[in-house]
Specification:
The protein is about 45% helix and about 15% strand. With about 425 residues, it is of the alpha/beta class. The protein folds into three domains: about 5-220, Rossmann fold, CATH 3.40.50; about 235-325, Tyrosyl-Transfer RNA Synthetase, CATH 1.10.240.10; about 335-420, RNA-binding S4 domain (Structural Genomics Hypothetical 15.5 Kd Protein In mrcA-pckA Intergenic Region, Chain A), CATH 3.10.290. The chain has a six-stranded mixed beta sheet, sandwiched between helices. A five-stranded mixed beta sheet has the order 9-13-12-10-11. Strands 7-8 form a two-stranded antiparallel ribbon. Helix 11 packs across helix 12, helix 13 crosses helix 17 and helix 16 (about 295-310) crosses helix 17. The N and C termini lie far apart (about 65 Å). The model has no long low-confidence stretch (mean pLDDT about 85). The chain binds one RNA strand of 82 nucleotides through helix 17 and helix 20. InterPro entries: aa-tRNA-synth_I_CS, aa-tRNA-synth_Ic, Rossmann-like_a/b/a_fold, S4_RNA-bd, S4_RNA-bd_sf, SYY-like_C, Tyr-tRNA-ligase, Tyr-tRNA-ligase_bac-type.
Length: about 425
Amino acid sequence: MDILKDLQDRGLIYQSTDLDLLRKRLGEGPITLYCGFDPTADSLHIGHLVTALTLRRFQLAGHHAIALVGGATGLIGDPSGRTSERTLNQKETVEEWVEKLKKQLSRFIDFDSSQNPARMVNNYDWTKSLDVISFLRDVGKNFSINNMLAKESVSSRLDKGISFTEFSYMILQSYDFFKLYELYGCELQLGGSDQWGNITAGTDLVRKMHNEKVTVHGLTLPLITKSDGTKFGKSASGAIWLDADKTSPYAFYQFLLNVDDNDVIKLLKVFTFLTIEEILELEQEVATAPEKRVAQRTLAEEVTRLVHGEEALQRAIHITNSLFHGEIRNLTGQEITEAFQDVPSTTLSDQQGSLVDALVQVGAAKSKREAREFISNGAITVNDVKVTHIATKLAELAPLDGKYLVIRRGKKKYYLCEVVA
RNA sequence: GGAGGGAUACCAAAGUGGCCAACUGGGGCGGACUGUAAAUCCGCUGGCAUCGCCUUCGUAGGUUCGAAUCCUACUCCCUCCA
């Protein structure tokens, strides 16, 4: 399989070093490649999936993938794409995040396969023991300040200011590439479009360290944008995380299910392993029967399964069905706790309390006034029954399984109240 | 250093003694329509409550029966001249 053609068909190639040379090299046999992930948060988000899955595409095509977590670079801070200096994170925090990222990456990249297992590395391992003198003599000598200043990540910060720490970032990342070439014969680095400067700095370093006799390659992937020009991956409530505790599988599934018709095909190409042919069929489906949203459903299922597993996917579908197409009343108490574990909930002790107070307590309304407004607007449904009387008491609402009140506000916001004696 | 202009609710922007909880636009939220869409239309958008009450218009005081509106001081921002 021609991996480069597949990536091109999917719109996944943005910038590259000599593409013909890379194609030639790939034709000669499996290549070792790497992509780095810096621990800047306790979880990856949906944007990281683009590069992580591309790494997997290479692995599936028989190439040797290395996933690097930036235990060292995460302590320094990449200036790329940032308009201001980062605040340094605590060492312990970064260590913790490294572990979390490692765990997440193993969901998409196969480190245990018997034929072609991928490798996980942490650049802290070879950076921690680097002493200043050898770093400056052996590595630093290969970097020209003039060149470094010209890089977008640095030049864009010269007016606003940049610390020496962040300025040096690209040297560390370049050293990673060099180190991986030495250790594992790694010849290709993948990254997001903002990584171009760091990647070329790396290919340059490897070449210089070998007296211009070695060529390694770099590839960047495009930033995924929506048809309205904005960045993909942000919901009203913030980033879409891969950590189930930060973005529930249900919310994750819903996010993808709700993508615009104009974006869904592009996203299928980027985020799924469906063949281009299969995706083109779905494109037809969008054109002829958009209301069925087959493409969106496919996208949501494929990616949720990939990130959270089959079981979580089924749960997300089940919740979706009962919330949007089924009857909540049909659910058992156990199913309710399961279905609404991702939804804001609260426990009410006063069965004689008013619905208005309950709405405020569960967070469905910011104030009693707003709660009353929602009720009189017909925005509030409790256990499938629309409530329109402001003075409604909890006791009148017939809890499911004797204790659950499933409150819906508007069309798709849910809250769960458990009433205890 | 000198001269002038401004600070209003999430943002923008009216209001210049009582009719102001404060025009209007955007955003947000809710409703109708729909495909859990887009577009469109309608409503709400300080808090508590049974008429009504309480807290808000940069900060702190003052004048007045009554102030976002007038006066004083302070803080911050902008423009122009040096």
